[in-house]
Design brief:
Strand content: 5-15%
GO cellular component, one term: cytosol
CATH architecture of the largest domain: Alpha-Beta Barrel
Number of domains: 2
Number of helices: 17
Helix content: 40-55%
Distance between the termini: 39 Å
Structural class: alpha/beta
Largest sheet: 6 strands, parallel
Function: Catalyzes the synthesis of beta-nicotinate D-ribonucleotide from nicotinate and 5-phospho-D-ribose 1-phosphate at the expense of ATP.
CATH superfamily of the largest domain: nicotinate phosphoribosyltransferase
Family: Belongs to the NAPRTase family.
Shape: globular
Order of helices and strands: HEHHHEEHHHEHEHHHEHHEHEHEHEEH
Radius of gyration: 20 Å
CATH topology of the largest domain: nicotinate phosphoribosyltransferase
Number of strands: 11
Strand order of the largest sheet: 5-4-9-8-7-6
EC number: 6.3.4.21
CATH class of the largest domain: Alpha Beta
Modified residues (Phosphohistidine): 216
Length: 392
């Protein structure tokens, strides 16, 4: 089995799932898979992916895992009680070769949001590991170790001692075992410069800090669940604040483009949230504009955290650190470049929510190729409502 624990996923899946249980337990959603690599044929692996999916759906949370979740101050006891009864159900997922016939596969997840939200991360990890163990049956682990140490050594200089990074690489990891080795190497080499990992299973296993708040799917779903489309971003942030009462205070800034985020992220939210996460567009421009926005709202930027998490590698982390150090608090989440860099081209695969309660939903990313929606009419309407130019 590739996935051996239901905790082998990102923390923000649990934090969002708790909001779903308490606020949107009846919501129905649909997710779609996409591989952005040209010419990659995944169809030979469909049966193997299905077999791993079946194994995933046999898993249950153990008492020790539930106790671990219960120990987090922002996780509520009724949610843990629900997880004690929970399991993933195969009936909500369809994996099949695409009708396009170009080596693509279709993965569709459809059902209650509460019962489908935990599929995304393990399914992506399964697709990755199946693909790489079939195409690279004898991987060059020594090359992977060399690359990793070379990167991490860049941070082990006196002027970067307070530059901390975290592992955000579960969904696109080369394998489960490789992610674990990477994490242990990071802890050995970086010491306190390793902030933690988004992977709850490895955080628990190795006494690391689990990290994460919200993902795009939460803000996307609020397009269908909120009172009015134009207010959906504000609605999502206010609901989050009601649920967590000051915990998990990092807002995601690019679901509707950064301009629309800044329009909605007013003085109230500037003070209420601890910081903001960058996930698309130019990170340097984003950081400068975010700090200026705090200053314009009479909030000291040095009291707020900017988290960078978009396709980071260590040299870019250092560039961003040098630009923004001493001007605000900083954190960096590095994913694929840490957990899938052995010399092979990583898969650029995603699973995104495309519908909620029968209505199309979408993300208007600041990186246009990240936008994903199966309804061009709705996408055009969303751009109009949030005043986002075509091409985003």
């Amino acid at each position: 089995m590739i996935i051996r624990s239901l905790l082998d996923t990102d923390l923000y899946k649990f934090t969002m799932m708790q909001v779903v249980l308490h606020h949107f337990p009846q919501a129905q959603v649909e997710y779609k898979f996409k591989c952005r690599n040209a010419g990659v044929d995944l169809t030979p692996y469909v049966d193997e992916i299905r077999a791993e999916l079946a194994s995933l759906c046999q898993l249950r949370f153990t008492d020790d895992e539930l106790d671990y979740l219960r120990g987090m101050r922002f996780i509520k006891s009724d949610f843990v009680d629900f997880l004690a009864l929970f399991h993933l159900n195969e009936k909500y997922v369809v994996v099949q070769p695409s009708a396009s016939g170009h080596g693509e596969i279709d993965i569709t997840i459809r059902g209650p949001w509460l019962h489908t939200i935990l599929f995304e991360i393990p399914l992506l990890a399964i697709v990755n590991e199946v693909y790489f163990r079939r195409t690279q049956p004898q991987p060059d682990l020594q090359e992977g170790r060399r690359r990793l140490e070379e990167k991490l050594d860049l941070l082990k200089v006196p002027q970067y001692t307070d530059c901390v990074i975290a592992d955000y690489g579960t969904r696109r990891r080369f394998s489960r075992d490789w992610q674990e080795e990477v994490l242990l190497s990071m802890r050995r080499i970086l010491g306190p410069q390793l902030a933690g990992t988004s992977n709850v299973h490895f955080a628990r296993l190795h006494n690391m800090t689990p990290l994460g708040t919200m993902a795009h799917e939460y803000l996307q779903a609020c397009q269908a669940l909120g009172p009015r489309l134009r207010d959906s971003q504000v609605y999502a942030l206010e609901n989050w604040a009601r649920e967590y009462r000051g915990d998990l205070g990092i807002a995601l800034s690019d679901t509707y483009g950064f301009d629309a985020f800044l329009r909605d992220f007013d003085l109230y939210f500037c003070k209420l949230f601890d910081g903001v996460r960058h996930d698309s567009g130019d990170p340097f421009e984003w950081g400068e504009r975010m700090l200026a926005h705090y200053a314009a709202n009479r909030v000291d930027p040095r009291s707020k955290t900017l988290i960078f998490s978009d396709a980071l590698h260590i040299p870019k982390v250092i560039e961003l650190y040098e630009r923004f150090r001493h001007r605000c608090k900083l954190a960096f989440g590095v994913g694929t470049n840490l957990t899938n860099d052995l010399g092979y081209t990583p898969l650029q695969i995603v699973i995104k929510m495309v519908r909620c309660n029968g209505q199309p939903v979408a993300k208007l990313s600041d990186t246009p190729e990240k936008t994903m929606c199966d309804d061009p009419g709705y996408l055009s309407y969303l751009r109009q409502v949030f005043e986002v130019k075509a091409g985003h």
